[in-house]
Amino acid sequence: MMNKSIKDLFLVRNSLSVPIWGYLLLLVLTGLLVYSNNYQGEFIFDDFDAIVNNAEIRSFSPVTHLLKPMANSPMAARPVVAISFALNYFFGGLDVWGYHLVNNLIHLLAGLALFGLIRATLLLPRFAPTYGAGANGYGLAVALLWLVHPLNTEAVDYLVCRTELLVGLFYLATMFFAAMAFKVERPRNLMVATVAVCALGMGSKEVMVSAPLMVVLYDRLFAADSFGAALRQRWKFYAALASTWLVVGFYQLDNPHGDAVIFDSGYASVLDYLRTQLTVIVHYLRLCFWPHPLVLDSQDWPIIREFSAALIWPLTLLGSLGVATVVGVRQGAWWAILGAWFFAILAPSSSVIPIISEIVTERRMYLPLVAVIVLVVFIVDHLWRRVVEDCYLRGNKAVRMVPDLALLLIAVLLGAITFTRNIDYRSEVSIWADTASNRPNNSRAHYNLGMALMDQERWAEAAQSYREAIRLFDIYLPVYDLAGTYSRLGATLANLGDLQEAVSMHKKALEITPDDAAMHYHLGNTFLRSKDLTNAAIAFNRAISLAPNFIPAQGNLGLVLMQQGDLGGAEQHFQRLLELAPMDANSYLVYGDFLDRQSRFAEAAALYRLGIGRGVKPNEGLVDGFNRIINEHPESGKSFD
Length: 641
Hints:
By secondary structure, this protein is mainly alpha-helical.
């Protein structure tokens, strides 16, 4: 406990009374301002699997699709996140603005929950005599710095990271409701709320598993005299809280992330991954204090395959923090919960579970960053008060304003960096160009930059990025990724007019994955562009033999056969195309054009009318085609109006 002069110092510093809503309003306005420029950001990377191409979020029926998302997808085992995306789609379709709005609001709510947690903790009997008068100020300092910290931009700006935002919100809310329950006489409703939000967190992301244990530790360090006392006094509450683990257990039964968690990948063993994560965690800590450069994808991070001098500093630092945490818990020191919080939340992803596809990712620090900020705020505040104690007690107003001005300056600086970082997420090209610039040896970054440039038809730049990705290719990437890079480079070169080299790239892709229907299809397209109908037909036939329901291959093979004079064979594929895609206008237009060319006008008109009658959208081409035929050949039917 502090001496009397320090207690008096708190009373002097907190003599000005600001209503709690003023603090909350400041946090909300600051958060809205800092992220006010991220609403135009595009869908990127895994956003397409989670949102754009995810048929499961298109409807709430059947609800089982949302309650049990498909395995090995970004939403696997995370139904709460899937439902949130479904709601986004229901109200705004694929309007990216709405998804960013929801992400921003979740981050704001998490910041408010953090403010409430710090405030509620300092108002507990253990801290109230000393810190109670400054509870709002400390809550503001921690929550403000956390809200605007640039290290959180990936979690907020990268839409699929709503998993991180929601688990962060529910984790903080769990701790907040528990803290409130520990200081009231009738805590039943607050305990129910704690269990409810904890269960929601378990359905948002697996890192929530440590939350019940963190509540027990919080109880021991801040409210009860011992773990035994805490468990005896509130055993029903903790039994209910522990039951939320069943949510995670249920969703892990079918190995939902089997493609990402690979224990025998051949690239990194469990021990390799653990050694590597020691360096990664130190990197995370550095970014807490110096958030530059921020990188979306650091997959080229070096794997540490043996104990070496490179591990001395990480082992010393993290080992010291770990030992201090254990000792602190045993001694009942309040600060021990910060170490436990940091390590427990990082443990599922940054220890012995080899998540080979994401060795380093900044969003994992979304919650652990809280512990770092709390520790820094209280250490700096304590040291400052020790240094200037006499100045405070003499009422020196200038000195008393220094902490507030320092907080303002740091928040503005961090907020400005965050505001600038948001711009990098405005487009796929900008974020991948930034990633490739900061991690020039990252083949995946160059590959994704190539795809983004390809979408903008910047063919020469895309080809350069794909070539760089191939040059940097490493064994950790799935073989398909190398084949896919060759195939995309081939398509890019075809658009540049270098058809011979394009064919060569497609063939290299097929040497790696000879049974990939899509790659045979792309090879066929390149042959088609070079007027090599024979090889084009071979490639399209191969694609169809591997994937009989491959719609584009059916249509293109029909076109090739038509040009070769095999009208019967062409018609068979056009008929198959119509069977596979009866609601696609192109199915009717391609087949109808074929019939028109054969002077089978009545059949063409009937086909167009069929498409119009089925409500195929867009149907302008069908209407125009139908009317053209009956105008030129009135005997074919009656005009459509």
